[in-house]
User: What shape does this take?
Amino acid sequence: MSLTKVYSFEDNDKVSQALGQFIAHASAEAIARNGRFTVAFSGGSLPATACKYLRDNPQVDFSKWYVFFADERCVPLDSDESNFRLVREQLLDHLVQQKRSIPADQVMVINDELVASPEDVAQDYLDKMQSVFAGSTKTKFPQFDLVLLGIGPDGHTCSLFPGHALLEERNSWVASIEDSPKEPPRRITLTMPVVNHADKVAFVVAGAGKSKTVRAILDEKDVHMPATFVKPVKGDVYWFLDDAAAKGLAENKPTEFKL
Assistant: This one.
């Protein structure tokens, strides 16, 4: 049964510091165990928070990283709406400047020539995932070392939205969506079974505007919020919150952050 650990910090900068340490530690553990680190990023504010201090940590062996996206918008890679662009600006470009680049063929981006058809984008992304994970797992799903997630006010995570049919998907690794209630409507997303086969899942949430949602997920186990169903089969869930986002918690009180 997975463990849930909740951490709260004074402000978003302190969240960035702790999260950077956490990711670096997870990376070192995975590389020591398997010779590589597989990580999936969400978009929004998460890449900036995750990478602010991480990118300058000289102890991280980025050459062993395989970067995926927990969800991606079906837009050109240079679009302001691209999750890849966020990670490129917050991490990849900095590593190039430091001459510590992640090899390009280890950054799994969508084929933006296919964006008119989310289904084709999803199939292409599945092929890329299988090229990395095929034969590496004894289960029918890939096992990411770390999946980094945010949440929306409605409790959605990845591009898995409340009441959407994709929440019932039990077999696919990656799915397409053409009717996202949040713009842009065309996207691809990892499915809930893939998220739940990760070794570690970390939610990163900041701001008082998310406090009610955090409480609904952690304390009330609100079944209308997709993030409630993130329960790794063998891995653990970590919540990195600022004090404003954590203020409504009563049952799942934050504990001291320790690696």
Notes: The first strand starts at residue 4 and ends at 9.
